[in-house]
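User: Modeling request: complex.
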Amino acid sequence: MTDKITLARQFIEAIPHSRALSMRLVEMEGGVAVIEMPYADNLVGDPETGVLHGGAVSALMDTTCGAAAMCHPSNLGGTATIDLRIDYMRAAVPGQAITTRAECYHVTRSVAFVRATATDESGGTPVATASGAFTVEGRT
Amino acid sequence: MTARRTPEPVQVVKKRRDATLRALVEGVPYIRYLGIQFERRGDELTGILPFDQKLIGNPMLPAIHGGVTAAFLEVTAIITLSWTYLWEDIESGTIDTASLEAGGLPRLPKTIDFSTDYLRSGLPRDAYARARINRSGRRYASVHVEGWQDNRTRLFAQATGHFLMPQPRD
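Assistant: Request completed. Predicted assembly structure:
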């Protein structure tokens, strides 16, 4: 079990952009993935308030959803995003880390359906939610 | 007969347009971090994402990270929307270029939702994007963005987003 998470962690950390954003894998098993991204000054979208840019949240959402699709028991290969929609509920509190939890809730022969929620450390209303479709590889 | 106003010298107009665009792009840390630039032809903007190793999402292929693609298209949408929203003030000269040059950023539209279609994998090379504003009201705007790499007609991604427009200061 520990080996599995270590492997998954190494995999996520091998993604140059995820590493650039200091993403840290918390959980990845059975179609559920949790990834944390610390606050950083270079990810700011509004310098007046210090609020993170939506694009940085997109990158975290995409990585986490992809990880959830990949660790679903009936999807053993890699995956690619077909489409991803993100709803921005509120501005993330400046200085706080963002944690995204993604769940792959259905897999067909060719498509994995995933939804995700991103929260900051203040709890309450999520910062953003996402839903997307991902490819299922390694089967025809 | 009333005399027609003499057109402003081209360098004056260009200076104002370029100062506004520079403030919009360089004032945002995340845009600088991704290395996104904008090229301007009159009022038409093209976003450019020069390739960089840190943008990779799949080291095996290699391919640009899907999150980077979404971010690039979202940045292009927001900058184009802000630019269009400010255009009248830029042209009339009511925009305060001195304050912009001192780092005073105009208020930006806020993303309500953003939906990205991944049509092809993003290759390890430069990417381009252009946004089209399909509807822009007092409060809400709907923007479509197209992203391509080597061929303008072979899009690697497209997106539609809704934005909340900045409200006049009280």
